Amino acid sequence: MARIKIEKNSSRKEVIVSKAAALFREKGFKAASMRDLAESVGVEAASLYNHIKSKTELLHEICFGVANRFMHKMDEVESGSISAIEKVEQLIRFHIDEMVNHYEEVYVSDREWKHLADPYLSNFQTQRRMYRKRFAAIIEEGIRNKEIKKIDAPTAVLILLHAIGGIESWHRSTQKINASNLTDNMITILVGGLELK
Amino acid sequence: MARIKIEKNSSRKEVIVSKAAALFREKGFKAASMRDLAESVGVEAASLYNHIKSKTELLHEICFGVANRFMHKMDEVESGSISAIEKVEQLIRFHIDEMVNHYEEVYVSDREWKHLADPYLSNFQTQRRMYRKRFAAIIEEGIRNKEIKKIDAPTAVLILLHAIGGIESWHRSTQKINASNLTDNMITILVGGLELK
DNA sequence: AATATTTGCTAACATCCGTTAGTATATTAT
DNA sequence: ATAATATACTAACGGATGTTAGCAAATATT
To answer: Is A167 part of the contact surface with chain B (CB cutoff 8 Å)?
Structure first.
C-alpha cells in the first residue's frame, strides 16, 4: 500500500492536481481518464476520491488557480504609475513567465476550460472577458497618449494573448532558444508591432 | 426514413464531415459522440457507417483537407517573385481568410489533431513541421535582405500562426469588426512588428 | 416492372468511463 | 498501547461510447 508521496508544504490533493494538469495537457481533459491519472500518481483510481470530489473539480482547481494569478497581476499592473506601453510589456512578460514556469496549468486553463461545468463555466468566462477588457483599456489608453498605433484594441489583445499561447509549441521543441531570448524576441515583435514610432 | 440532404456536387460523406467539423469544434473531438453527430445530421448513429469507416476517419478528412490547402498556398507563395515581407503578408492574409471562411475545419485541425491515430498522426505532424520550416525560411530570407528585423525566425512563425489562431475568439464575439478591418489590423500589428524601418 | 444498389433502421455487443460501497491498513493523537 | 483518523484497496454499479449485424425501405439501373 504505497501512499502518495508529498513534498513539504504540499497536500496530497495538490500532487493530484499537478499530475492531472500534466495529463490533461497531454491528452486533453476528456481523453484523460481517472485510471490514467491514478497510474501517474501511483495509486488505484478509487483512491483518488479520498482527496478530491470529482474529475471536474480537478479542472476547476487548475483553471481558477491560473485565472487568479493573472487577475492579481492585472490589479498590480493597473495600479502602477508607468506608461501604457510599459504596462503592456509588463503583462506580456508575466504571461510568458507563467507559460514557461507553470506550463501545464496555463495550457490546460487555456484550452480545456470549455469542459468546466456551470456555474464554474460562466464564472470563468466572465473572468476571462473582464481580463481582456482591462487589457484592451490599457491599449486604448496608449492610443490616446499616442504611444500606440491606432488599431482596434480588442483585436490587439486577441493577437497578443494567442501569440503568447504559442509558446506551447516552443516548450516541447528540441531546438529551444532559452527563455529569456524567447521573451525578448516576442517583445520585439509584439510591442514593436504596437508601438507608434 | 429521411435521407441525408445533399447539395449539388457534394456527397453525403461530405455533409457528414462538415457537420462533424462543427461538432468537433464545439465540443472537442473526444467529447463529441457519434450519436451527437447523427442527431445533427438527422439520422441514426449506425447509419453514418454506410458513408464513413470510423470516427477517426472524420478527423483525418478534416485535418488533411486543411493541411493540403495550406501546403498548396505555400507552394504558390514560395514560387512568386515578390519580396519576403510581401510573401509573409500574403501568407498571413491567406491564414486569416481560411480562418474566416473555413472556420470550423481550420479550428479543429489546429486544436484536435492530437487525436489522430498513427500513421496519420506522424504524417500530420511532419507536414506541420515542414510548413513552419518553409515559413521560417521566408522570414530568414527577409532578414538577410534587411527587410525584416533580426529576430529568431522560428519564434516569429510561432507568434504569427498562433496570433492568427486567435480569430477563433473574434469569430464568435458579438461586437465584431468586419473581416477586412480585422485583417488590416492584424497585418498592421504583425507585419509592423517584423518590418525593419 | 423487375432487379440491384444504396441508404436507413433497430438491436445489441464489448469496452471504457466516473464514481461509490465496503473493507483493510497505515499513520496520528491520546 | 489504544483509539481515532486518514488513506489505500478490491469489487462493482450504471451509463455512455464506437461499432457491427441483420433487416427494411428508398432509389437507381436495366
So the answer is: yes
Per-residue model confidence (pLDDT) at position B94? 94
Cβ <8 Å between B166 and A170: no
- Cα separation, A20 vs A34, in Å, equals 9
Nearest CA to A162 among B196, B191, B159?
Answer: B159
Which amino acid does the sequence have at B162? H
In this prediction, residue A55 carries a pLDDT of: 97
Answer whether residue A77 shows pLDDT above 80: yes
A14/A21 Cα distance (integer angstroms): 11
d(CA A112, CA A106): 10
Contact B182 A155 (CB under 8 A): yes
Instruction: Give the pLDDT mean for A176-182.
Output: 73
- Whether the CB of B196 is below 8 Å from some CB of chain A: the reply is no
Residues of chain B with pLDDT under 50: none
Cell of B166: 486567435
The conformation of residue A82, written as its DSSP 8-state character, comes to S
Residue type, B81: S
Q: Which of B158, B182, B191 sits opposite A170 (nearest CB)?
A: B158
Q: Are A139 and A148 in contact (CB under 8 A)?
A: yes
Pull the grid cell for residue A87. 504596462
Q: How far is CA B18 from the centre of its chain?
A: 14
The average confidence (pLDDT) of chain A is 89
* Helix (H), strand (E) at residue A21: helix A12-27
The CA distances from residue A151 to A81, A127, A138, A143, in Å, are: 23, 24, 13, 8
Span A145-155, pLDDT tens digits = 999 888 888 88
B28 to chain A, any CB pair closer than 8 A? The answer is yes
Answer for the pair B42, B2: CB distance below 8 angstroms, yes or no. Answer: yes
Q: Which amino acid is at A185?
A: N
